[in-house]
Amino acid sequence: MALRWFLLLNLICNILLLVDVTHSAAQDARKTYVVYMGDKPKNGPILPDLHVNMLQDVVDSSNIDIAHEDLLLHSYKRSFNGFAAMLTEQEAQKMIGMDGVVSVFPSKQRSAKTTKSWNFLGFPETVKRSALERDIIVGVMDSGIWPESDSFSDAGFGPPPKKWKGKCQGHGNLTCNNKIIGAQYYRASRSFEGDVESPRDSSGHGTHTASTAAGNTVSKASLNGLGLGTARGGVPSARIAVYKVCWGSDISSADADILAAFDDAIADGVDILSISVGSNIPFDYLNDPFAIGSFHATRNGILVSMAAGNEGPGAKTVTNFAPWQLSVAATTINRQFITKVQLGNGKIYEGLLPNIYDLRGEFYPLIYGGDAPNTKAGATGTISRFCVRDALEEDLIKGKIVLCDGPIDGAGVGAILGGAAGIVLTGKKVVDEALGPYPVPASYVGLEENSDIYKYINSTRNATATIWKSEEISDVLAPYVPSYSSRGPNPINPNILKPDLAAPGTYILAAYPPSGGGSRARYYIETGTSMACPHATAVAAYVKSFHPKWSPAAIQSALITTGLFL
């Protein structure tokens, strides 16, 4: 009997110990926090040990097996005061109460939000230029850059302006020149999976935005023949400084790295900052690295141009909205792509999507996604009809054109990964939903066209179809604000109207890393407020080249008050 009680007591003690250990582990879980401390001290530089000493005050040495210095990820001291460190929730709370601390918040992940666009804006190649344009430095905070592109050649450029204090952190696989005068990268997590440890761009997003703002003039640029023309940035003589904060295929960035990039860019001497990155939801100014960083940039005479976000069309969806930021929404331009889907019965349906592939009229078997569920994964036709990831039976769709219902996020991805020969996507408003080329032949049709194609599939045992390469036509309704572009007003202070202005963001052709071998970059068509932002950046840089002493507020006011009403 005594043995039974001993075993029961021992079991209870072990359970309580396990609960306590689990609770302790949860309490001690460390993650990256940003500690913001406002301006630099006016009475001298920030002492090297200040941030480490603050960590020593809140982090008990007995609770860590590494030095306090190793908990410090970034020390912000060139342009403002603060740091990023690995803290527990309890330690972060202690840090909030320390003298000089303005705010403490977890480092969250943020996401990234032209042959015809400049002419469409009434900004031709022959526009009057200032000799000072060559001294303008455009800082681009994004996913890096592909320096071998013709858009970034330094032929004809002299040395960087004397005011430049930045550096080129090539890490062995990137070389700066007199066009790209600086390049740095930021990754506190030290995780480089799916990317490269350098300022080199692997996703294409940063290369695209940088060339839109300040790329050289390049003739005969196109995406497999689409958008053929002269690609150029708004200020092609300006210099570019690169700050890589976005990583991986999802082009995400961390708050801690964003503030480190701001700290350097301000001190390096950039004139304009272009940032096509943001969150999906609004944050208070003191918990938003973009609001904090852009505030200090503006105080130092640097205008910060930011993408408004792709969360539209609802009200208060703008995500970069601080009063001192230039918040840029997107518009369409007079470019549209018609992609025809031809069925085996001869009927042709016009869809909207830039399709770069030419099937040359060859017909392929046509199948409806709802008829090919991946039953092994538990999928049914109600989900496979959207052609999302893992929902389709690969053996049933491989080598076929797949009709997919929609619109939902991820529609068509399962068909692409499953080896489909092509996809026909569906949406209520095709012009707003089709945001870019797909890696297989694709078109985007309306609900009525989808219904007709579905009826054809069910009318025959051997349904076939082909997808033709896109034809470029003029969009006579442009410009207008597409539904993806985030709307205002300011969600924190609704009496402040945001976004400030709109610029071309739909079907923009600009430089991009090559998809295969070779070092010469190609060009690609992208859509989003990420593409609109560098257009506004370039116009701001253009104004500054004529009025170098104007403040960011003066330049921003000039852009807003001279813009045209849509």
Textual characterization of the structure:
This protein has 566 residues and is α/β, with parallel strands linked by helices. The protein is 26% helix and 22% strand. The protein is built from 15 helices and 26 strands. Strands 16, 17, 18, 19, 20, 21, 22 and 23 form an 8-stranded mixed beta sheet that branches. It is globular and about 80 Å long. The protein starts with a helix and ends with a helix. The N terminus is likely disordered.
Q: Helices, strands, pairings?
A:
Layout: H1 2-27, E1 31-36, H2 50-58, H3 68-71, E2 72-76, E3 82-87, H4 89-96, E4 103-106, E5 109-112, H5 117-120, E6 137-142, E7 180-185, H6 205-214, E8 218-223, E9 226-231, E10 239-244, E11 252-254, H7 255-268, E12 272-275, E13 277-278, H8 289-299, E14 303-307, E15 326-331, E16 336-343, E17 348-352, E18 364-368, H9 381-384, H10 394-397, E19 401-403, H11 413-417, E20 422-426, H12 430-433, E21 442-445, H13 447-459, E22 464-467, E23 471-473, E24 501-504, E25 508-512, E26 522-526, H14 529-546, H15 552-562
Parallel strand pairs: 6-10, 6-12, 7-10, 12-14, 14-15, 15-24, 18-19, 19-20, 20-21
Antiparallel strand pairs: 1-3, 1-4, 2-3, 5-11, 5-13, 8-9, 16-17, 16-22, 16-23, 18-22, 25-26
Helix pairs in contact: 6-14, 7-8
Question: In short, what is this structure?
Answer:
The N and C termini lie far apart (87 Å).
Attribute tags:
566 residues, 7-stranded parallel β-sheet, disordered N terminus, single chain, 15 helices, 8-stranded mixed β-sheet
